[in-house]
Write a structure and sequence with these properties.
Blueprint (H helix, E strand, L loop, with lengths): L3 H8 L8 H22 L4 E5 L13 H5 L3 H7 L2 E7 L2 E6 L2
Antiparallel strand pairs: 1-3, 2-3
Helix pairs in contact: 2-4
């Protein structure tokens, strides 16, 4: 994840001046923020999360929940979920009201 300073620097450039790395980082930040905000605004009753993410190896297995839990809005909303099971690499989390 890019730092806030790097994001602010990258986002002040016109898209045509962004390097490939800056563009990728900007896109990742947009997805990270948007998913977290949308999830917090309208938490679903259940979430199905795959362990088969298809992301290149980066020192450890990538975990969607761990990744998005870094965002305070997502973390606050996801606190109400409990894992109810796992089948063939898919974890089911159900919201407890």
């Amino acid at each position: 994840m890019m730092s806030r300073e790097a994001w602010e620097t990258a986002s002040t450039k016109p898209a045509t001046q962004l390097t490939h790395i800056e563009f990728a980082a900007e896109a990742e930040f947009f997805v990270f923020r948007t998913v977290a905000e949308d999830f917090a605004a309208a938490p679903p009753s259940a979430v199905l999360v795959t362990r088969h993410v298809g992301i290149p190896w980066c020192g450890q297995e990538f975990d969607f929940i761990e990744y998005f839990n870094r965002h305070p809005l997502f973390a606050e909303a996801f606190r109400n979920y409990r894992q109810q099971g796992e089948i063939e690499g898919y974890r089911l989390f159900v919201r407890e009201d």
